[in-house]
Amino acid sequence: MTEPHTLGIDVSTYQGRIPLKECKERGVEFMIARSTYGLAFLDNTFKTNWAAAGAAKVMRGAYMVYVPGKDPAQQARAMWRAMGPLDYLDMPPAIDFEIPASPRDPAGLLEGLLACKRELQRRTGRMPILYTGKWFWADAVGDLDSEEAVEMPMWHAQYPSTKRDTRPYLQVMELYGGPTVAKPWASRGKKETIWQWDGDGGLVLPNGVDSDFNKFNGTRADLDAFVASSHVGVAMALAPYDLGSVLGLQQALNQLGAQLVEDGRSGAKTLGALKAFQTTQGRTPDGVVGPSTIDALEAALGY
Length: 303
What we know:
Layout lengths: L5 E6 L8 H6 L4 E8 L3 E2 L3 H11 L2 E7 L6 H12 L10 E3 L9 H19 L4 E4 L1 H7 L6 H4 L3 E4 L11 H8 L6 H4 L7 E6 L12 E5 L3 H10 L16 H10 L12 H13 L10 H10 L3
Parallel strand pairs: 1-2, 2-4, 4-5, 5-6, 6-7, 7-8
Antiparallel strand pairs: 1-9, 2-3, 8-9
């Protein structure tokens, strides 16, 4: 392959806990881990793999799966809470954009994506990465164009073949050539920033589990420069509380004037403080920490 590149993998609960030090020895320089799926759940391996990347000196990134029909800003906030404050050399957050709207709604789907992008950018101070493919964009978004969408660097999905290839990775990439990106990027002469090109058939992960190969277009120094260039604003100064946990909820309520023991245990006092907060917000005091209550807590905390 004539063009320099940097190898990475993307992972989720399907790959489990990743032995990143061993992956580093096999040439992996970055890992992008699934954080959240819409508002439905936090990936149960995310926090472990996110923390392990730093110790292994593997650059870390996170992606969220965008789900149409769910509040875009709430989805972005869920990802932000999962990641916490980003280190300067962490990759910018990525939005996995591959679930179509049902019924088909190109304009609404695109606007939802952009609303999610704006909220992530506001909270992290980074320009998010967009994961998608030409096939999906053409079917789901069609001929709609968007300068704002094209601001996002593309993490492009396109696979050389559906079979596992036993030839060396670089040889396959050389023979396959380059991918074809979605029309808004292609029409402006923009290439993919990262290419997800296929599963590796268990070559990278020491336990033999399949992971996706990803090629960043450039050297490791270029990758570092790309991450530095993703800082396009000021990240929110406040660290997010883990409002999905009792401890995080107690910490947030105490910031708002409650006097709870921060022990991570759910009890009558914590429930009472939550209900009291809901009442002051004109909400039904049901003691449920749902998306609307989390939004109200964050607004009250100045997020």
